[in-house]
Amino acid sequence: MARLPRVHLAGVPEHVIQRGNNRQVCFVNNEDFAAYVYWLKQYSAQFEVHIHAWVLMSNHVHLLCTASDNSGISLMMQSLGRKYVRYFNRRYLRTGTLWEGRYKSCLVQEEHYLLTLYRYIELNPVRAGMVASAADYKWSSYSINALGKHSDLCQPHACYLALADSVAERQQAYRDLFGKEVNEALLADIRSTIKSGMALGNARFKHEVAALTGRRQHRERPGRPKGSEQAD
Fold first, then answer.
1. According to the UniProt record, where is the region Disordered (predicted)?
2. Whose CA, among 51, 80, 171, 224, lies 20 to 30 Å from 72?
């Protein structure tokens, strides 16, 4: 099945992932991680994209972000990708592509799904067996969202702010979320939506996205001829 074109909606959170070509390493050391974070901060501010959660792994990047207009995330990722590739190729005396084609993204329903995406992203190093706790991994937003580390990059989403009134209580409530794992069915849903580019959310949310963008948000059932779809 052909991959659907990406859709963006101003004010609606997006889960973004970009992988190294053939899953090759795209961050060799701390200087590389720091360079990417620096330019992510620069371009997210330039294109008015709020970054809520992020993690940099050795061969891929996850972002949870919200743009103020429909083009912000695309412009940010294009500028960031080009800038980092030039840096990486120059630093390691290489040429050619670094990223695995275009980045992938999907819109995310705020209620029920957004805070799960926070956890999914920041738990990547734990699932990969790199660290025992999200707090042990330097290159993610966990220390910002859970422990109060100052950041000019991360901007909290309203769902995060709604966890509690005070900063200390909010951080504690956020840490408490990490006491339970993301269930396998939801993990599979997150992975399939980012792969297909379809919205992550319930049926109502997907219907709203389809109505606003004119692009379907469900998979076509195999073996059915065109024109055979019936209204739900």
1. 212-232
2. 171
Q: Listing from the earlier edge strand, what are the strands of the sheet with 60-67? A: 49-56, 60-67, 14-19, 104-107
Q: What pTM does this model have?
A: 0.88
The distance of Cα 230 from the centroid of its chain, to the nearest Å, equals 33
In this structure, the dihedral spanned by the alpha carbons of residues 47, 48, 51 and 54, taken in order and rounded to 10 degrees, is 0
Asked if 56 and 139 count as a contact pair (C-beta separation under 8 A), the reply is: yes
Please name the residues in contact with 49: beta carbons below 8 A apart, sequence gap of 6 or more: 43, 65, 66, 67, 68, 72, 73, 76
Q: What is the pLDDT of residues 65-105, one digit of tens each?
A: 999 999 999 999 999 999 999 999 999 999 999 999 889 99
CATH of domain 14-202: 3.30.70.1290
State how far the Cα of 74 lies from the Cα of 194, in Å rounded to an integer: 15
Q: Cα 183–185–190 angle (5° rounding)?
A: 95
The candidate with the shortest Cα–Cα distance to 206, out of 119, 71, 113, 120, is 113
